[in-house]
Amino acid sequence: MEGYNQDNTADSGELARDWAGLISECLRNILSRLSLEDRWLGAMLVCKAWLQECKDPTLNSVLDLETNFDSVTELPRFWTPEFESRIDNVIISVVGWSNGSLSEIRVRHCSDRSLSLVARRDGNLEAAAIGNSMPHLLQLELQFSKLMGVGLDLICEGCLDLEYIDLSGCRSVSRRAIENAKSKLKKLEIKKPNIYITRSVLRWERHDY
After folding, report:
1. How many domains does the chain have?
2. 18 and 119 belong to one structural domain
3. Is 26 in the same domain as 79?
4. 24 and 93, same domain (yes or no)
5. Which neighbouring-strand residues pair with 108?
6. Are 170 and 145 in contact (CB under 8 A)?
7. Same domain, yes or no, for 201 and 153?
8. pLDDT digits (tens, 9 = 90+) for 39-86
9. What is the pLDDT of the chain when averaged over all its residues?
10. For 12-40, b where at least 16 C-beta lie within 10 A, e where not — what string?
């Protein structure tokens, strides 16, 4: 009888572990069907277990915030420091949770701070973070970011599979920098900025004149 109880207890423990793994897998499957917004504003707030599942790398291989902007017109609040900080927090979290599996990122209204923290503040800001943390990146949208020519070079050096990059509104990226990027990555398609900043103005901005 004693032996039976021991065997039964062992079987129960093994069964519990199997069920725990199954529940986690099923939950992850359900969460994968939710949008990023639904996970952040809903599932992640349910309990700690659901929060942990939302951090799984398989759920963070794509960061697409563009759909949220496509459905609404540009609002004044999009340009506030508070809104920029929210976007930064999403980017920093997803990049960390992806564990290097991030293959697509589409964002706007973010700051250099968002990805510079991922790069452990190595001074190269978001471009170095992208190049170092996302080697398998295929598509990148950095609309209205503060990216410069040297940053674009760093991205091209680290993301050799990059096929498309949207630089709309990135006024500090020169035509020459874009041509250099295309020469490095033959398959790269670039949506060019619709505005450019002259060298003289850029020099003044750098020195806060």
Report:
1. 2
2. no
3. no
4. no
5. 143
6. yes
7. yes
8. 999 999 998 889 999 999 999 988 888 777 766 666 788 778 888 888
9. 75
10. eeeeeeeeeeeeeeebeeebeeeebeebb
